[in-house]
Amino acid sequence: MIIKIWKEKDLELVRELPIEVKEVIKENVKILVEEYGEDRTEKQLGGFVALIDEEGLRELKEKILKNTIPEYIDEIKGADYISALFLCGSDFSVVVICDKKLIKIVEE
């Protein structure tokens, strides 16, 4: 599963998550929208936030994040999730949000 979040209205897709996780996603989406606009697509500049499970993480690492290591990995306080920033170019990034038990796969 990969849920891509491009703009604040996409937060509806993750309404079941703990509030701490939704806040991290919202902060990152807000930055992307401010810098690159709300009407961008996957092929345009900016990037997106991806909520993923193990299968989705492996798929993302195989395709979009191929040969890319995370710039940082943060634990989300109050939740069993992490957030990891991958810079895929000078104007494209992916913020991965996943269960913290997947940290080893994120670090690969």
What does it look like?
With 108 residues, this protein is an alpha+beta fold. The chain has one domain. Helix content is 30%, strand content 31%. The protein has three helices and five strands, in the order E-H-E-H-E-E-E-H. Strands 1-2-5-4-3 form a five-stranded mixed β-sheet, sandwiched between helices. A hairpin with a 4-residue loop joins strand 3 and strand 4 (81-89). The longest helix is centred in the first third of the chain and has 18 residues, at 19-36. It is globular and about 35 Å long. The two termini are 19 Å apart. The model has no long low-confidence stretch (mean pLDDT 88).
Query: Helix coverage percent of residues?
Result: 25-40%
Q: Give the integer mean of the pLDDT values.
A: 88
- The helix/strand series, from N terminus to C terminus, equals EHEHEEEH
Overall number of domains? 1
Strand order of the largest sheet: 1-2-5-4-3
Q: Uncertain spans, ≥5 residues at pLDDT below 50?
A: none
Radius of gyration: 13 Å
Distance between the termini: 19 Å
Shape: globular
